[in-house]
Amino acid sequence: MNASTLVERERRESDAFRLLERTLVRRRVAGVDARLRVELAALAALILGFLFWQVRIPLDSLERRTGVATVAEVEFAGLAALAIGGGGIAFARHTVRLRRGPGGPAWLALPVTPRALGRHLAWGSRATAWLALVPAAAWVLAGVQLVPAWWLVLLFAIFVWMLLEAARLGCWLAVRDAVRRAEPRSGLDDLSPVLVAARRVRTSAPLPAAHWRRQPAWRALLVKDLVVTRRPSPARQRAIAPIALLVSSAVAWALPIAPALAHALAFALGLLTAATLAEWIIAVAGTDPFPVLRGLPLGVASVWGARLLWAVLGSASLLVVQALCARALHPMALQVLLVWLGAASLAIGALGANYAVTLYPRVEHAQRMLALSLGLAIAASLMIPLVGWVLVFTALLHSARRLPGWSRQEAF
Amino acid sequence: MLRIERVSRRYGDLLALDDVSLEARPGEIVGLLGANGAGKSTVLRTAAGLQPPDAGRVLVGETDLWKDPVAAKRDLGYAAEEPEFYEELSVDEYLAFVSAVRGVDPGAARARAADLGVRLGLGERSREPVRRLSHGMRKKTSLLAAVLHRPAVLLCDEALEGLDAGAALAAKQELRALADQGAAVLFSSHVTETIERLCDRVVILHRGRVARTLERREWGAPEPGLSPLEREFLALASAAPAEGAA
Lengths: 412, 246
Prior knowledge:
The complex is a heterodimer of chains A (412) and B (246).
Chain A: H1 3-31, H2 34-66, H3 68-100, H4 114-126, H5 133-141, H6 149-181, H7 191-199, H8 217-230, H9 234-251, H10 259-286, H11 290-295, H12 300-325, H13 331-358, H14 363-383, H15 387-401
Helix pairs in contact in A: 2-3, 2-5, 3-4, 3-5, 3-6, 3-7, 5-6, 8-12, 9-10, 9-12, 10-12, 10-13, 10-14, 12-13, 13-14, 13-15, 14-15
Chain B: E1 2-11, E2 14-24, E3 29-34, H1 40-48, E4 55-60, E5 63-64, H2 69-74, E6 76-79, H3 91-102, H4 106-120, H5 135-147, E7 153-157, H6 165-180, E8 184-189, H7 192-198, E9 201-206, E10 209-215, H8 216-219, H9 228-237
Parallel strand pairs in B: 3-8, 3-9, 6-7, 7-8
Antiparallel strand pairs in B: 1-2, 1-4, 4-5, 9-10
Helix pairs in contact in B: 3-4, 4-5
């Protein structure tokens, strides 16, 4: 193959990948529905606002003490750290993708050069580095009016360049690491053995022996939920938050803060525990494969009962933890806390169980309905105290009325 | 006994089932034959309780499936064309869960799962998570879960597709054994050879309607039993089960 043919081939290949990447970006953006876009924007704004205030005050005092130049230096150091962090994210993402298989078609079956393929795979992993943009924006905004605006623009441009380079470096390091681990094969390029190894099925020790037990359907579901949550699954990911928040609500009582503040913090963390428990209930119900669940002689009572029981168990755990950690409270105050927290967490958990059943198998819809209901309740309570609870109980009753329709629901 | 009476089902503008009536009597294996898109899977999904019909009804024994689904499904087994599972559970854990929900005696269920698992070639994989199984292994697991409780009505949607020859033979033997014990089996396939050898009666679907019903005597040979290729395969594998099984 002569040089001009090679050049022509490389040009065609890189055009094809560029077109593919543009199409992928368009499809992925279009795939995020409008509501989720608003939610993501709100989340980014929240993070940005939080970080802005965390950085703004120290920078302000720094400017008063040492002047503009020091603030600019700190800004630069922070942005450099964020760019390195972005590169770290790209490295981690690329390492995982190369280890588990990068997704997409059977790349090794396609007549593409390893160079072009490597570039395309790194492009996919590098995208995650852009997550660093949100904290970087907060960092830059925190310097507004403390350093000249054009300095900030320049710093941000330098940050973008550093982020791109750090992400490139991260992906390159991930490839080198993967090549080092892969079994070398003579006559093959560096990337092919990595992709071959990624495709290989990994073996591991067998799972523990099954328990063949006579038990009612609701208990079989309950036990199955527990087993599924202990294994790598979406339900396990959702289980981490309520456990962490439950522990945090206990720790709140031990913090060196005013008792009234500890009380409020523990109550708020308790409510968050209940909300994330409700999310887990929806997630674990969502792992039920539709044809399995609907092919079995299960009524709505068993399915709903098993999930409601998780809400009850969660609320009970929360109350036990609070009762043990808040012993310093006056008995009457403790009683009030436990009654409020018990009723609230049970209501939120039951709402999760209702949505898990009535919106099955549309897990995402159920999660959004829960977030919407609780979000509205918080907003209502902020405007008129306690009205939020009226909303939660209304949602609970409304969703409970839809439970009997469970047996006629269809998969989409 | 399974009776599907005047069932219609529409997906948007597409009339998938148009006034379909058929029955599978106890001891009978009824084949459901038709081209892709003829409505075979829709019939079976409706009969399994996965989607309600727009009109008509499904009777399992004397129980209306859509009026008393829990009671009807106790007597039903359903092996799906594209089976879904709890991917995190092992084959055994999944079967133990299914048999517990069905109220099967745990000891009997375990013994039957072990026996059938060996015959279907699943024995060594029974403690692996389902997500690691190949398509054929998943089909075997689905079939095993469907027959574990010896259902009075068994629905098989392309249940033998993707199975190796030995497992397909064991599966056919199990279906015949269930029918001999009085089960009504509704078996869909687009492979006529399988239906010819396995079924006692055939219902041919065409564009969502029952086009024809044929008794075995109407299509004559081949008789139930091993095909020449199956004989060759078994001779090679040195694991030939008794002939005469379906």
